[in-house]
Amino acid sequence: MRFRDGSLDRRVSLISLLAVVVAFASGFIAQWLMALIRLITNISFFHRVTFAAVSPSENHLGLSVIIVPVIGGVIVGFMARYGSKAIRGHGIPE
After folding, report:
1. Distances (CA, A) of 7 to 12, 15, 16, 17, 61
2. Helix (H, G, I), strand (E, B) or coil at 90
3. CA triplet 41, 43, 37: central angle to 5 degrees?
């Protein structure tokens, strides 16, 4: 299909198709990431391996619940220090 001014050609169609493929892929990756967050939340706060959606506020750890985010921060700190350079910085602006 071609418009009278020639604005729709094979290249525009290819780029549009690629955009649709990237959109579907990013949607699936986002769903996978959400499942991973649910899994780590369940393991950290409830000591069970499941992908069920739960709130960390419903835990029964008592005051030891303070240790869970500290351990997560230490893990991320080691990843930033000794891992990939891509994790360093201030997020999107960099």
Report:
1. 8, 13, 13, 16, 62
2. coil
3. 35
Q: Which two tokens stand for residue 84?
A: 């990939």
**pTM score, two decimals?**
0.69
From first to last of the 94 residues of the chain, give the pLDDT tens digit.
555 666 677 888 899 999 999 999 999 999 999 999 999 999 988 889 999 999 888 888 888 888 988 998 898 888 878 877 776 666 555 5
In angstroms, the CA 56 to CA 35 distance is: 15
Residue 61 to residue 52: CA distance in whole angstroms: 19
Alpha carbon of residue 18 to chain centroid: 21
